[in-house]
Amino acid sequence: MASLRQQIATTALTLTKFRELMRRMQENRPQDDLSIIKKAYDFSLKYHEGQSRASGDPYLVHPLEVALVLAEMKMDPVAVAAGLLHDSVEDTSVTIGDIGKEFGEQVAHIVEGVTKISKIDFATREEQQAENLRKMMLAMVDDIRVVLIKLADRLHNMRTLEHLPPERQNKIAQETLEIYAPIAHRLGMGKIRGELEDLGFRFIDPVGYEQVEKAVNARRKQGEAFLAKVQQTIKDKLKEAGIQAQVDSRIKRLYSIHKKLQRQRIAVDQVYDLCALRVVTRSLQDCYAVLGIIHNLWRPVPGRIKDFIAMPRPNFYQSLHTSVITEDGTPFEIQIRTEEMHKMAEEGIAAHWKYKDGPVSAQDEQRLAWLRQVVEWQRDVSDPAEFLSALKVDLYPEEVYTFTPKGKVVVLPRDATPIDFAYTIHTEVGHTCVGAKVNGRMVPLRHKLHSGDIVEIMTQPGHKPSRDWLALVTGAGQILALTQQDQTLAQPASARARHRNRPQADRQRSPQVPDPTKRNQRRRSPQGGFGLRPGQSGRSDVRNRLRKIFRPAGISAPSSGRSCRRRRERGRARSCRR
């Protein structure tokens, strides 16, 4: 009797969620045929019957929640159906062939891509994580819906993470913060990224999470009242100016606050964008008109005006940002963007991805340029640790906007150097870089670039990069290009210098690094004169060769400076004794 009640409750729960899914799909895509979603639901219901999750809920709830997230993204029926089926191959007896027969090759291909990401098993966690990332990047380039389903899958798993043991909670949360949230950020999916970060923060650092949450909640009531007042003021001014716009308010996310407090070493009261308003306009011209109105109302904070419309972020985020201070000294941030920009900021690449309108547009191809670059890197890098560390650097950059002398914008990671700039222009420019000018002045290659810098790179044909550059570059592409360029980069810098200064005939031999404990080897001529080789002793060899040159002519060979000094010192000592 109990099992019958449980079965009825399970059916009622899953049916309710399925009806909600169909309602959302009909609202978002009223012209699409949704029969494939109903078919996928029935298929999953059949094969997941009797299975349950760690929370005690029927397993089918998870595929339905993943499909609901995809429906919120306004994804097409094929993607939603694949979301309902994404665990069928891994957790049931169903095969990819079965899915292909029932739902077609397209759905089967997406489900196979999602399954492959998490199916590989390697000896170490680092190798497994690196290989999963490689597979994910390849799948993303092949069909972006694969990674969108994987992100939806991870989001629901994070929402229910409290039901797992602590060690698994920590592992999954760490992976989410290091990999999945940054990938969502790179794809411009701000809404999913924000939730993934807050959920991961809650499990990775419960004490820090509680402290930030407590500080924010203490200011929330006052902040919301303040924002409501400012919001009404802006609405009235926009109405007077005849500008149609939507004005919303928000409190900054906890993880973003935590990172800012750590990075800038400040208190919560010093976070200018803790409270923020968002103005969504009808046109691009209205964005700049609103900015002018706001700056007439309140005093802007110097250095806090950012035009991401003219210079979009690498993930194609566009908006105007400005921080202002009210008459009573309260700072807050305002973001201004068009409806199209807002859609892109919230949904990212999912907002523009088209499946029924023929080939992929040029704009979407540009959005995938970063992914294609990552795929090229992973083909060339065999070490999983190297690939993983380089990718983590590039997943979540804080951007610096620089310019070439001709005015082209070059977006670089924070703390980038002229070497990063050179490799971003072209790999060969990076390899042959010998110097740089920033804003017309010569700077060392370790100089950190700032937004607005005009950078000119000086090159020399045949020049090879130094291994020391690895400590100066910040971008993943630059790091990998340097490590792959020349095997001599693996040697110490001093050994490379000796190898470079040897006679041309001897350079073809593998350079030998002398034993630093041998005194006479350390004193060898740094210029490599008289054809000295790495095995020779240096100063004594110079004197022997000089004796051979001068002895036939009856001339005594010149002594070294040290020998002369010693003789003079001995003579003085004898004079003193006398």
Features:
alpha+beta, 578 residues, Beta Polymerase, domain 2, 3-stranded antiparallel β-sheet, 56% helix, 6-stranded mixed β-sheet, Ubiquitin-like (UB roll)
Topology (SSEs and partners):
Elements (H helix, E strand, L loop, with lengths): L1 H27 L6 H13 L13 H12 L4 H9 L2 H4 L4 H8 L1 H15 L5 H18 L2 H15 L6 H21 L3 H15 L1 H36 L3 E7 L2 H11 L10 E7 L2 H14 L1 E2 L5 E2 L12 E6 L5 E8 H9 L14 H6 L1 H12 L3 H12 L3 E5 L5 E5 L4 H8 L1 H5 L1 E6 L2 E3 L11 E5 L16 H10 L7 H9 L17 H4 L16 H12 L10 H17 L1
Parallel strand pairs: 2-6
Antiparallel strand pairs: 1-2, 3-5, 4-5, 5-6, 7-8, 9-10, 9-11
In words, what does this structure look like?
By secondary structure, the chain is of the alpha+beta class. It has four domains: 2-187, Hypothetical protein af1432 (Orthogonal Bundle); 208-351, Beta Polymerase, domain 2 (2-Layer Sandwich), CATH 3.30.460; 397-490, Roll (Ubiquitin-like (UB roll)), CATH 3.10.20.30; 495-565, no CATH class. It is built from 25 helices and eleven strands. The chain has helices at 2-28, 35-47, 61-72, 77-85, 88-91, 96-103, 105-119, 125-142, 145-159, 166-186, 190-204, 206-241, 254-264, 284-297, 339-347, 362-367, 369-380, 384-395, 418-425, 427-431, 476-485, 493-501, 519-522, 539-550, 561-577; strands spanning 245-251, 275-281, 299-300, 306-307, 320-325, 331-338, 399-403, 409-413, 433-438, 441-443, 455-459. Strands 1, 2, 3, 4, 5 and 6 form a six-stranded mixed β-sheet that branches. Strands 10-9-11 form a three-stranded antiparallel β-sheet. It is globular and about 90 Å long.
